[in-house]
């Protein structure tokens, strides 16, 4: 059990680090070097760790025995003035994180196919598949500072975007309420059939 928890934490740290790395990578490619100059264009989990989202919330969930492990890292700094097309580029930068989690889930699934089912690594990889899909879904919630908020802001016309951005300062409080009241678990349960269908299709293909 201790080994499984340890491996799960390691996979979680890797998953959120890759997530943030690709935010920084896409931003850098689109002309904004803020993340790179801030030391965020790295896979080092320490550079991306957030006290609540990366440490306390996941630890609380693991200790409570919940079926849903999720969290977040420090948002990658982006100066949208450096982007040629701020609204479109904002969406590209934001969606890069969830896409990276889906790819990581696919990689974990493929590796899992070569591991005997009675090995503890099989169980951890199975959890990594679900974890990364859950992270992709969780980060699409349109609450600051999650990626969904940046995507929604990029889609809104400028006048509505301005009004929407006024709620950014309350994002962390709203997010904490969502997590502590179990709303996130309900959202992930809502998408459980989608995850099951994806898993079945992957099993068929691989």
Give the SSE map.
Blueprint: H1 2-29, H2 34-37, H3 45-48, H4 51-64, H5 86-112, H6 120-138, H7 147-155, H8 158-165, H9 171-180, H10 183-190, H11 192-205
Structure description:
The chain starts with a helix and ends with a helix. The protein has one domain (2-205). The chain is globular and about 55 Å long. The protein has eleven helices and no strands. Helix 1 (2-29) runs antiparallel to helix 5 (86-112), helix 5 (86-112) runs antiparallel to helix 6 (120-138) and helix 5 packs antiparallel against helix 7 (147-155). The protein is mainly alpha-helical and 206 residues long.
Compact overview of the structure:
The protein has 206 residues and is mainly α. Helices cover 70% and strands 0% of the residues.
Assign the structural class, choosing from mainly alpha, mainly beta, alpha/beta, alpha+beta, or little secondary structure: mainly alpha
Q: How much is the radius of gyration in Å?
A: 17 Å
Question: What is the domain tally?
Answer: 1
Q: What is the makeup of the main sheet?
A: none
Q: List unreliable stretches of 5+ residues.
A: none
Helicity range of the residues?
Answer: over 70%
Q: Based on Cα principal axes, name the global outline.
A: globular
**Mean pLDDT across all amino acids:** 84
Number of strands: 0
Give the termini distance in whole angstroms.
29 Å
Assess the beta-strand content as a share of residues: under 5%
The number of helical elements comes to 11
Q: What series of H and E elements makes up the topology?
A: HHHHHHHHHHH
């Amino acid at each position: 059990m201790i080994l499984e928890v340890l491996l799960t934490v390691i996979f979680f740290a890797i998953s959120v680090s890759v997530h943030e790395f690709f935010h920084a990578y896409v931003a850098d490619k689109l002309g904004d070097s803020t993340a790179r100059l801030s030391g965020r264009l790295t896979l080092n989990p320490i550079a991306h760790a957030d006290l609540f989202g990366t440490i306390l919330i996941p630890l609380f969930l693991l200790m409570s025995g919940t079926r849903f492990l999720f969290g977040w890292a420090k948002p990658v700094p982006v100066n949208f003035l450096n982007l040629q097309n701020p609204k479109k580029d904002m969406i590209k930068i934001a969606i890069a994180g969830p896409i990276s989690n889906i790819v990581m889930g696919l990689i974990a699934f493929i590796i899992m196919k070569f591991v005997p089912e009675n090995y503890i690594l099989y169980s951890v990889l199975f959890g990594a598949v679900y974890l990364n899909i859950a992270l992709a879904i969780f980060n699409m919630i349109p609450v600051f500072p999650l990626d969904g908020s940046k995507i929604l802001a990029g889609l809104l016309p400028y006048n509505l975007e301005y009004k929407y951005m006024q709620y950014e300062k309350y994002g962390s409080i709203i997010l904490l309420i969502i997590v502590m009241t179990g709303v996130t678990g309900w959202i992930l349960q809502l998408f459980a059939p989608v995850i099951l269908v994806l898993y079945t299709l992957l099993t068929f293909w691989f």
